[in-house]
Amino acid sequence: MPAIQPLNIHVGRGDVYIDVDVPTTPPVPLVGQGVPATGRGIGATLDASNWIYRPTTFDIRTQQDTGVVGYVITEEDVRLEFVLGEITYQNLRDIMIGAKDQGSFITVGGNIVPVIKSVLIVAPKRDGSGGFIEAMIYQAAFTEDRTFTFSRAGQMAVRVVARSQAVLTRAQGDRQGFVHQNVSL
Amino acid sequence: MPGAGLLPLALLGEDAVNTIQTHLRNTFNMHLTKVWNQFSPQAGADRVNLPLLDVDRFYVSEAIEPLKVPSAFIILDSSEHDLTAQNVALQRHRILVAFLVEAMEITQLVRTVWRYADAAFLSLHDAAVGNIKILVRRVSYSPIVAPEGGNRQFRKDVTLELEVLHYEALPLGAW
């Protein structure tokens, strides 16, 4: 039986930041109690946040065997999903792909070029080390639907999907984002 | 926030009760006056007096025998933590608000209780006060009772069951 270290099983919230300076080499440096020096925290999130790596592969087969003998990655779709709780001007401006910034509110309709921003999750580790898990997308467009639910008996919770676009100036293998399992202050 | 200069509390029920107590002290009599203006100026048997409540008649416990009635009781029954909230405290409290009324004539007692309930509903339902949102889920009317000791006053109460949504920021780094 392998050595088991249950403290490596992560349980805990993630705080979401938008427009954090993208590090030349990950991770993003943290200050204070685990806050990036740049960017903007979006505040309360009302459900689990997800960093999703979704590769598409092409199967390589041969006549000599029934099994797949190799895979080639043909697409990589990286997403960061979270549920926004705080309805503020800054959050509305940043989470809608077609939003037009009107200074104190936003409008939609007619924009075809998305605003691109970085997105970062910072999650305190539970092992007592004071470290953090970071998961980042270097350049994200805030795609998909935005549903604003007005209800007398429950809070408005807006699910946000941020999809990565590759940064071609970065090295191959490091063009979309990263996950770092232990970032110290 | 529970109060200026204080750290946010982990359990928010007491803060919610305090907020509702203050809210009722500030608004209940105003709504009771509205209800009185709607019903009581009309002549006839439906007319009942609706005494205003002094600010010291809003208790935060049910285990008390009030010296004066009508009185109000704000009772914290339970708090449920919504764990879908990640970095904010979201708690749902079940809070009971009861009004105890006394009268010698039973029909007037019943109508008085109904109208206290009207005023309480107007004061509490859909009210957003600070970091809490109040919803009235149920209104329950008690049977009429005759207190012991030769007192000829009959008593009846009404209880409003509140669902209270409570949102508070957490201290940085907590949980």
Residues in β-strands, percent of chain A = 35-45%
Number of strands of chain A: 12
What value does the Rg of chain A take, in angstroms? 19 Å
Uncertain runs of chain A: none
Strand order of the largest sheet of chain B: 1-2-3-6-5-4
Q: Helicity level of chain A, as a percent range? A: under 10%
Low-confidence stretches of chain B: 1-6
Q: Write down the overall mean pLDDT of chain A.
A: 95
**Largest sheet report of chain B:** 6 strands, mixed
Number of DSSP helical runs of chain B? 2
**What form of chain A results from the Cα inertia axes?**
globular
Overview of this protein structure:
Chain A is mostly beta strands. In chain A, the strands form 3 sheets. In chain A, strands 1, 4, 5, 6, 9, 10, 11 and 12 form an 8-stranded antiparallel sheet that branches. In chain A, strands 2-3 form a two-stranded antiparallel ribbon. In chain A, a hairpin with a 3-residue loop joins strand 2 and strand 3. Chain A is globular. With 175 residues, chain B is of the alpha+beta class. Helix content of chain B is 26%, strand content 33%. Chain B has 2 helices and 6 strands. In chain B, helix 1 crosses helix 2. The N terminus of chain B is likely disordered. At the A-B interface, loops of A face strand 6 of B.
Could you give a short description of this structure?
The complex is a heterodimer of chains A (185) and B (175). With 185 residues, chain A is mainly β. Chain A has one helix at 89-95; strands at 15-18, 30-31, 35-36, 40-41, 50-61, 68-84, 100-101, 106-107, 116-124, 132-141, 158-164, 177-183.
Observed structural traits:
heterodimer; A: about 180 residues; mainly beta; 8-stranded antiparallel β-sheet; two-stranded antiparallel sheet; 12 strands; about 40% strand; globular; B: about 180 residues; alpha+beta; 6-stranded mixed β-sheet; 2 helices; 6 strands; about 35% strand; elongated; disordered N terminus
